[in-house]
C-alpha cells in the first residue's frame, strides 16, 4: 500500500521540523529569519531588529484558534459519520472527494475496524473540546509571539486530522463491530492511557496558570517563571509529554495499523520532543535553582 497524500503531508512536515532544528542551531545559528520562523514564545529573543520580521508573527494566544477549528471540523465529521452508521446516509460528495484526495493514490481501504476509527475520532473530539476550554478559561498566555509558520501548521493539523483518519475507511461496509479480543484490549488500553494523559495535561496547565495568578484567581503577571509540582518534578515539559501520550493512545486503539494516524503521531512526537529540548535548555540557562535531575520530556530518560 502506497504512502497516501495525507500521510505524506505529515511525513514532510516532520522532516521539515527536524531540518529547521538543525539549520537554526547547527548550520545558521545567527540567521534571525530562520530563528523567528522556528522558535516560539520564550525561546525567542526579545523583539526583533527588523520590523519586517515582526510581520510574520502572531500572538501566542492564537493557539486557541487551533482548538476552535478542531471543534468545528471534528464535530461536523462525527455528525456526518453518525448519519452513515445509523441511517446509512453517505458522506456528501465534496467531503468524499476530500477523503479520496487524502487517501490517493490508494483505492483499497485499510483494514482498521469501524469501532476503532470511531473511538479515535471521539478521542480527538474530547481533546479539542478540553483544550479549547483550557485556552479560554484556564491558561494565562504571555505577550510572546509565534511565527505564522507555526500558526498555519497548527491550523492544518486540526483541520485535516479527522479527514485523514476517515479517508482510508470503507464506508460501503462500515460497521461498529468486528473487534476481536486483541482489538478490544487495544481499545481499553488506549482509552485508559488517553484519559490518564488528558487528566495529567489538565493538571499541568493549571499549575502553569497559577504561576501568573493570585490566590483569588486574578492575573498578576505574564512572566515566564519556573514551575514546580505534578509532573514538573520529573520533566520540564509535561504538557508536551502528555500530548505525545494522547496521540500514542490513539495509535494503540488502531493497533498502529492506520497510516495517517501513525504519521501524525510521529509528527507530534518529533515536534514535541524538539520543543521540549529547547524549552529545557532555556529553563536551565535562566534559572539558577533549576533541579539538576529534571529531564526535558520523558521522566528519567530524556
Secondary structure layout:
Blueprint: H1 5-27, H2 32-38, H3 51-54, E1 57-59, H4 63-87, H5 93-103, H6 114-137, E2 145-147, H7 148-167, H8 181-210, H9 238-253, H10 259-286
Features of this protein?
10 helices; globular; 302 residues
Question: How does this structure look, described?
Answer:
This protein is mainly α. The chain has helices at 5-27, 32-38, 51-54, 63-87, 93-103, 114-137, 148-167, 181-210, 238-253, 259-286, and strands spanning 57-59, 145-147. The protein has a two-stranded antiparallel sheet. Helix 1 (5-27) runs parallel beside helix 10, helix 5 crosses helix 7 (148-167) and helix 9 (238-253) packs antiparallel against helix 10 (259-286).
The biggest sheet amounts to: 2 strands, antiparallel
- Rounded Rg: 20 Å
Query: What percent of the residues sit in helical stretches (DSSP H or I)?
Result: 55-70%
- What spatial order of strands do you see in the largest sheet? 1-2
SS field, number of helical segments: 10
Count of DSSP strands: 2
Low-pLDDT runs of 5+ residues are none
Question: Can you give me a brief rundown of this structure?
Answer:
The protein is mainly alpha-helical and 302 residues long. Helix content is 62%, strand content 2%. A two-stranded antiparallel sheet has the order 1-2.
